[in-house]
Amino acid sequence: MLSICREFDQVILRDFFHDECRSHMGSPLYATPGKFFVKPPLAGMVIYKDEFVDVHYMQSSPLQAAAAFQAGVETGITINGTDSLVFFTDTPGVEYQVYPVHTGDESDPRLGPPSRGQSASGDHLFLEGGRQGMHLLHGSSPTSMIVCLSSRSRSEVTQHFSLQSGKLVGCTATSVTDSRLQIIATALSYLRGSDNTGALLDMSRHPTTFVRWNALRSLYRVDPAAASERLKEMRENDVNEEIRKLATRSLEQG
After folding, report:
1. Predicted TM-score (pTM) above 0.85
2. DSSP code per residue over 168-207
3. Who has the most CB within 10 Å: 1, 33, 94, 143?
């Protein structure tokens, strides 16, 4: 992953962004295959993608970082379900905290005490999928990073935690395809349609655990009777032990 990040030197990045600018200027309807994203204090885009890795270019300006650290503003951290390597470039110096995720059989995941680090251009940091996340600290210098993410997930879910409480506040699917199915399942629970029950039942048999359970929750809003019958099946036959326990608990609670 480090060698991949090092391939994207300043010349390659400059040529890439120049090509993007020319394409946008030449065609108002041009849509880049590399998707842009903004998640304050970071902004960036996907600069490379294949069946093994996604490579992102990300940047944070001092003003963006300062705005993200205003007193009283709730901030959070995302723990990706895939391994990632952060390679710092054009960075005089940046401080960050690495948060571990503590999990237990009887309790929800929560953030552990962070370890503090400092990096500059040429340094790198590896983050284990589902176990570690990095939080940039407010500084006076701009920060640029190339981030390489593995396409193979360690965890089916990407977890979102509150930095204030350390508690888990939400989950999304790690896979882009699974994440879209999650959105579709949620949308079907609010849209009218005679085929919604069948579609959600089909999704509740998806191989990804997170998709199955999210579809079941949406099915309950649309057709509680069908959801109850599907819960009984999941209690007895689901391949995932956690899903079987959740189904049992849900049926006991009515």
Report:
1. no
2. EEEEEESSHHHHHHHHHHHHHTTS--TTHHHHHHHHTT-S
3. 143
